[in-house]
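Long-time lurker. I teach an intro course on protein structure, and each term I like to show students one example going from raw sequence to a predicted 3D structure in token notation. This year I'd like something fresh instead of my usual example. Would anyone be willing to generate the tokens for the chain below so I can use it in lecture? Attribution to the forum is fine with me.
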Amino acid sequence: MHLRRYVLTGLVTAIPILVTVFVFSFFVDLLSDIGRPKVRLLANALRPLSPGLARTLVEVPWLESTLAVFLTLAMFYLLGWGMSRIVGRRLLHRLEDGVRRIPLVTTIYSATKQMIEAFSGDRSKAQRVVLIEFPHAGMKAVGFVTRTMVDEVDGIELAAVYVPTAPNPTGGYLEIVPVDALVPLDWSVDEAMTFVISGGTTAPSSIHWRRRVSGAGGGAAHVSDQVPTSASS
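-- Reply from a regular --
Happy to contribute to a lecture. Here you go:
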């Protein structure tokens, strides 16, 4: 009995640490893989001046990986700095014009760019984090509004809502929901992502389960979506 309890306690303690290490290692390895060719170019450039240093850069694994990560971060910094300048934006526009001429590549690039802009763009454009009825009435899921559109028949305003799955938010569902059926949450995207990844363990003590609408007297009333009036509070 004690053995099983201590093993379970050890697992519960270790799992968050192991997941954190795994995610951190994944991004470090990704940055290292991007920067490793630059390290080898740097080593080749230094070889006529300092053969020993050039050999060390490519033969010491931890040094090569560390330098590769820093070079990648520096490259991203310079890219961000360049995009904040007019010349950089013009170069980006020309690159995008070239990408749009390639059928399959333009589809992937445009979809990825729009998704990133939806999560990192101006939060005042729309309520990003919402609750929707999913997978059926009586149950709700956290979703992210990525864009809004209008029904061409009756003019109803609709929202494209991405519903991530737990604990891996990269997989999920895309739902088209009437804007009137959305329950806005005062969460940031980071808070909502943490909630999903943690399986709800970081949930706040209270949440807007029902949509808040204005009452006749100017006050606020809570009305549940798809719930009869007699059951609403």
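Some talking points for your students: Residues 2-84 form one domain. Confidence is low (pLDDT under 50) at residues 216-233.
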